[in-house]
Amino acid sequence: MATAAELDRPASSPEDFRQEVRSWLAENFPPTLKGMDNALASVEGPTEETPEMTAWRRAMGEKGWGVPTWPKEYGGGGLSRADARVLSQEMARAGAWNPIGGMGVMMFGPTLLEYGNEAQKQEHIPPIARGEIRWCQGYSEPNAGSDLANLQTFAEDKGDHYLVNGQKTWTSGGQWADKCFCLVRTDKSDKHRGISFLLIDMDAPGVEVKPIRMISGMSPFCETFFTNVEVPKENLVGKEGEGWTIGKRLLQHERTNLSGGGSRLQPSGPSLADIAKKFVGTDDEGRIADRDLRARIAKWEMDWRAFLLTAMRVQAESKEAGGVSVVSSILKTAGTKLGQERAELLIEIRGLQGLGWEGEGFSEGELASVRAWLFGKATTIYGGSTEVQNNVIAKRILGMLDHQ
Amino acid sequence: MAVLSEEQTMLRDMAREWTQNESPVTAWRKVRDANEATGFDAGTYGTMAEMGWAGIVIPEAHGGSDFGWLSLGLVLEELGKTVTASPLAATAAAASAVVLGGSEEQKQLWLPRIASGELVAALAVDEGPRHDPATIKATVADGRLSGTKAFVAEGDAAGLFVVAAGDGLYLVDGGAEGITRSRRHLTDFRSHAEIRFDGVAAEKLEGGKDSLLDDVLDRARVLAAAEMLGLAGQAFDTTLAYLKQRVQFGQVLATFQALQHRMAALYGDIEQMRSAVEAGLAAIDSGGDTRQAALLAKAKANEVGHVMSREMIQLHGGIGMTDEYDAGFYLKRMRVLEAMWGNTSYLRDRFASLSGF
């Protein structure tokens, strides 16, 4: 990461920079790609790129603008936050989207910039910035879900390398990933301090990946098996035993991304009210005919606004205080709950038309809503379940301790 | 649990034993994977018919056992526990239209074939994706019915349709000319079909009260509610068993008070759902005013079923999200049943109107 001072300096000449971005986008962003979105590509599957998309990804990668605030020396854009905002405004204006994403950008990159050594940063950050390498996360295990520190995958010290054995689960995009950042056990005698942060090549001998079919019919997650996988010592991030600290830091990046505080949960397309008007009809004054439904849509819209206001307030307060606001801890729980409520409302509004699985009689949008509704049930489970988040709030913020 | 007669207790025990042994969720998984439009296993339905289940609400004079609606509800609840698919509910609701509104000739023609399991019957009322029996556009002229019915449950296998037209209910032979069936593949993998009737020969059900359609819909609602009771009850039992065995942070999840309270609240909800559902079924057997009881049964089933199927996934955590586990079946079937024959808003609105406010 750029230093705080660099990030916070005002854009030296914002208008010049705006002009620069504008003309660069005009030259490099193919208008045919307008309005497409790559944000979930890393979760939903391999992206089939058209030559135009490849060219766009390369142009953005070359410029470092896919990761605008990452340092230039590792392939980032080296922009201040102010300039990055200008960039994102201008991209939105042009209908351009960021072709560089995934776990490398959202979670692993920022963590490695903080904890990696110089050689690791030189090796791993530039390919992430160029959108060339996909990373996946090897955290959860069958008996280490909410109780993540219970993980048992063992990395045995063999002198010049580790020998890794064990099983990970919920490996997002594991079947398409090139590399995996993993929490492994290097010491069986200490639950938390026995954990280390290790980088593993997914094509190394002994790595086996099995997709898990979800209730939505999709398989965005895998079980990943490590059988006598040899991992070079230089792939250890930080020191042995620092994995829990580094891993938790990475989870903060994950939660920020999952909260919907960003734009990812921002509903796109027609509003609930417009869909309801179409499916339910309106009374003489243009109100949704089903009054109970109307009231609940109003409640959702108001809850959503309150959530967005909270997300903005958290951002402003964090900036002011130069740290993360404690209120950020409610964002994931609140954002995912609202996302699920919206998906349920969408189904209810459309009646049986909103429950299509496949085939004749359903639009693509309707079918996509159904899969999103089902898959969305995972949002309150992964990335720290709502129950675990509530524990954190009760214990760390409210000071409500267990029985002594 | 309602107070059951000896015969009802025997029927329920038989249904429970058969379902648990012969039709566990793995049986539904096979039907799901086969992905046929009819959405149930014909051999399994044949076995149910041999046990007399297809004739439970059909008078003895017409080949049934006249065991009543609570009895059929007990069976559907047991089937719901393992997500067992059958056209029992749709067929019984459609048959009730014949029983309540058919001529002796119509009864003799159709009811024995329904009671024997030879014939699947379907109730075709709604013309859009949301339940709205007040808006029926299908018409009949010179004994020919025209119109399009949406998401007809068991419409893919039906040999008899009971069709709502503007001026009443009509019987349409499933083999008649002018019928076009298109599968509508919903998340529950059961049969829901769009049925187009183009000037199809139809016979009116002349008997019964003016409220015939509403009386039939009451029956469809309580049967859906009975299946939902089975789904919700099993969702609860499965979740409770999981919480008692899953270990995290060095203790079984069941020892966490936050989870204990959630399960306690769900337990209370499901018991009240049971009271409402059983009362709805019993109201139909008693022959009095069934309307409010049926609305209450389905509304409670909708509310509690919704929360329980959602909580089943959340309380299981990641494993509940996998197709390999069964939780998804309960969620998907529950949402479809919630939307059928009136969602919660619809039922509340009707309840308020009936109550005079």
TrEMBL record, chain A:
UniProt-listed InterPro entries: Acyl-CoA_Oxase/DH_mid-dom, Acyl-CoA_Oxase/DH_mid-dom_sf, AcylCo_DH-like_C, AcylCo_DH/oxidase_C, AcylCoA_DH/ox_N, AcylCoA_DH/ox_N_sf, AcylCoA_DH/oxidase_NM_dom_sf, Mycobact_Acyl-CoA_DH
Keyword field: FAD, Flavoprotein, Oxidoreductase
A GO CC annotation given for this chain: plasma membrane
Domain Acyl-CoA oxidase/dehydrogenase middle: 136-229
Domain of life: Bacteria
Residue ranges constituting the Acyl-CoA dehydrogenase/oxidase N-terminal domain according to the UniProt record: 15-132
Residues of the Acyl-CoA dehydrogenase/oxidase C-terminal domain: 241-398
Swiss-Prot/TrEMBL cofactor(s): FAD
GO MF annotation terms: flavin adenine dinucleotide binding; oxidoreductase activity, acting on the CH-CH group of donors
One Pfam family cited in the UniProt record for this chain: Acyl-CoA_dh_M
PANTHER family: ACYL-COA DEHYDROGENASE, ACYL-COA DEHYDROGENASE FADE29
Family designation: Belongs to the acyl-CoA dehydrogenase family.
Name of the featured protein: Acyl-CoA dehydrogenase
Organism expressing this protein natively: Sphingomonas aracearum
UniProtKB/TrEMBL annotation, chain B:
Location of the Acyl-CoA dehydrogenase/oxidase N-terminal domain: 5-118
GO MF term list: acyl-CoA dehydrogenase activity; flavin adenine dinucleotide binding
Cofactor: FAD
Domain Acyl-CoA dehydrogenase/oxidase C-terminal: 216-351
InterPro entries, per the entry: Acyl-CoA_Oxase/DH_mid-dom_sf (IPR046373), AcylCo_DH-like_C (IPR036250), AcylCo_DH/oxidase_C (IPR009075), AcylCoA_DH/ox_N (IPR013786), AcylCoA_DH/ox_N_sf (IPR037069), AcylCoA_DH/oxidase_NM_dom_sf (IPR009100)
TM region positions: none
One Pfam family matching this protein: Acyl-CoA_dh_N
Residue ranges that the Swiss-Prot or TrEMBL entry lists as coiled coil: none
Keywords (A to Z) from UniProt: FAD, Flavoprotein, Oxidoreductase
Entry superkingdom: Bacteria
Assigned protein family: Belongs to the acyl-CoA dehydrogenase family.
Protein name: Acyl-CoA dehydrogenase
Source organism of this protein record: Sphingomonas aracearum
